[in-house]
Amino acid sequence: MGWPSNGPTRSASQRARMSVTLPAPPAIRRIGRLGQSAAPAGHAFTAQPATTKLRIWRRCSFMGYSFAIEWVHSMRRMRSQEYSRCWSCLQPLVEGADSLMAHWWEQSMDRLRAIRYLVSAAEGASLSAAARLHGVSVAAVAKLIGALESDMRVQLLERHAHGVTPTVAGRMFLEVCRPALAQLDDAVEQVTASSTRVQGTVVIGVQPVVAQEVLTAALPKFCALYPDIQLDVRYFMNMAELQNRSLDAIIVMGWPQQVGDLVGRALGATTFVVVASPAYWTAHGMPQHPLDLEQHNCLCIRSNTGSVMDLWHFRRGDERVSVAARGSIIVDNVHRDMVRDLVLSGVGVARLLDWHQRPGREVPRGLLVPALTDWVVDEVPPVNLLYAPSVRRTPRVRVFLDWVVQLFAEVERERLRPLPATAMPHWVKMRRLRASETR
């Protein structure tokens, strides 16, 4: 039978005569079975006004596992003898529910940890990289990822001698899990973060040249402004790394392609200056026209796309000149600082970014001397800030993005005139081995 309807307050003798056997509610029977504690066929309760018991029943049906706490609190309002009678029936069920709740919670946390391990293993290309990142053993990582694969009945990682790589199913799963984990972490941070101090880790990808020429000198100021934010700075070379390395934002110089649904913000632009050491110019003479560079040892850089940037464009008024630069050394973009060091030592001529003309750098100090200053280098790569729309809502990422915008605004103000970026050169689109092949 169901709970009795509301009625007038009854005496103790009336309540004793109204003692009834009530069937276990469906939620109790269900949880009793799940908790491996058989629910009794009925419970002997002294009938109470429906206000208390209806509240218990509704809480049991609606809240599931938490019904036991509400029920016990309500039973405590009874006399101790009646409470003991109720508790004797309820105790096995509560213990079963507690055990089930603990088991369910442990399983849920294990699955969440397994997904985090999977993401880290895919990013680090090995289980050991995930183990080091999370401070656990490789066996623990392998066990949880294996359990996740067994539960999903699909292989997510391809194991081989050199590490692991995601399968097709694994890549599909990771595409969904990465933003989901990011949103979960952001939600936890927004709830738990202090209202006055922003904290957490910001993972940024930065091209080496941007890090070396601009970011490194400015980072101490950011750390002083936001001491509770940790910056995880990673070298970034191509757009594919944005998804594979779970970056919050990237700072890239050049003409990025295939940015997808990322938000792009122009930070400014930079251009090139032709420089050499004073000793080199003294020994070989300074060029008076761009074509004179064909007689010099021009050190070239290979771009991120694999093309050697050996086609140097110059403009003076309506006159335009392109020079196929040739020299004894070609250096990858990631090692661009080697070119600077070689030029400083007098090896040859190079086309370096105009950031070297900023206060305190090599040109103002006289270590490098620019040539062809009456000509404009007719190729101006932009500097872009790229990030996913969702990360802007995260306080720690938002303050970093705003700070980067202000930093490059200061760099732009150091120039006497604004420097608009030029369109993507043909050699970037055509992907030739040498830019000079596109002439």
Automatic annotation (TrEMBL):
This is LysR family transcriptional regulator. InterPro entries: LysR-type_TF_proteobact-type (IPR058163), LysR_HTH_N (IPR000847), LysR_subst-bd (IPR005119), WH-like_DNA-bd_sf (IPR036388), WH_DNA-bd_sf (IPR036390). It holds the Pfam family LysR_substrate. Keywords: DNA-binding, Transcription, Transcription regulation. The keyword Lipoprotein does not apply. It comes from the Bacteria. It comes from Hydrogenophaga aromaticivorans. Belongs to the LysR transcriptional regulatory family. GO terms for molecular function: DNA binding; DNA-binding transcription factor activity. Residues 110-167 form the HTH lysR-type domain.
